[in-house]
Amino acid sequence: MNLRTALATALVVLLLAGLGYWWWRTHERVEEWIDLPRSGEAASNPLYVLKLALKKDGVKALSRQRLQPDRYPLGARDTVLLLRDPRQLSASDAKALLAWVHGGGHLIVRTPPLGELSAAASIPVLTELGVKFFPQRETDCVAMYVEHQDSHVEFCQGRRFLLMERAPVPLRAWGADDTGYVFARLPQGRGSVDVIADLDFAINAAGEEHEEAIKDAPHIALLRQLLAPNYRSGGTVHLIYAADVPSLWMTLLTRSWMAWGPMLLALLLWLWRRAQRFGPLLPSPASERRSLLEHVLASGEHVYRYGYGHLLHAAVRNAFLLRLRRRDPQAAALDGEPQAALLAERFKLTPAEIREALATPVARDHAAFRSRIATLIRLRNSL
Q1: Which of 148, 129, 45, 55 is nearest to 89 (CA)?
Q2: Do 312 and 300 touch, CB atoms closer than 8 A?
Q3: 376/112 Cα distance (integer angstroms)
Q4: Which of 145, 163, 279, 325 has the fewest CB atoms below 10 angstroms from its CB?
Q5: What is the model's pTM?
Q6: Sign of CA dihedral 298, 301, 306, 310
């Protein structure tokens, strides 16, 4: 190793050592927690956190998307929290729910989401309870104060409702007849029905604000008070939700672009390269044309078809006589029997055949016409 190589090696080692010292002096190893996206039931069940909280509190809780009374029979001490739109309930399920509430059950149902709603629309369970709704309009937020809490819960997005005269006297209510109610507990037999404007404070899968809301102390206290009638009775809390599943096309558009994007680009590039072949691959076929001989033949057939065969015979005879006048003026100058005899001697035919060929055929005599025309053409070609 020479001196230059040794110096270069030492310089590289010093640079690496300085870089390492700077790295360790300016950087520090730390741990960071990153929340992974939800999966499984936590991603599809908006009441998943509430179910876990109830189970941790010693309450039996079940969550599903539909009532399914055959598979999950409701007991007299059970509670049903109906998060889904009550308009999606069937008439049979609504009738069974009301019968179950009369036997001691506790039902918590929300009002239909904001949107167009006819005043005469019949909503299962709520219509039977004497609940009606305001027409669609903008409303201010309503603060509902929770007992034993210094703060309150606001209802800004829910639909307010009114109680008709046939509705039972509510055990608890929040609101007024002129501005509408956001909550009412209506007795039904040995049970009760809680009608509430919205349940967004109980869900966890609609956004970070809801996830934080369910951890808020006033919201927890309000949930406990909603579940209070049968909360510690040993019954089961049935959490009924409606999973909002996006459409397949929207999922493919937003989450599968890494696959269809390059494929679409490759297709466009292939089409661009093949664009020169767009259009007809074969030239246009030539238009129909007739040769001169075909035109003459078609014209002769037309003339003969309309009874003018004698004109065709005269034209062939004149052509023969014209060539005969050029090649044999003596025979052309004769006429009658002398001409027939001379031509018969020259063409080795009988005088009768010569006279027959030169005579005009009878109209519509096809055989005579063909034979005379053929004889005249043969004689003309022999000159």
Answers
A1: 129
A2: yes
A3: 107
A4: 279
A5: 0.56
A6: positive
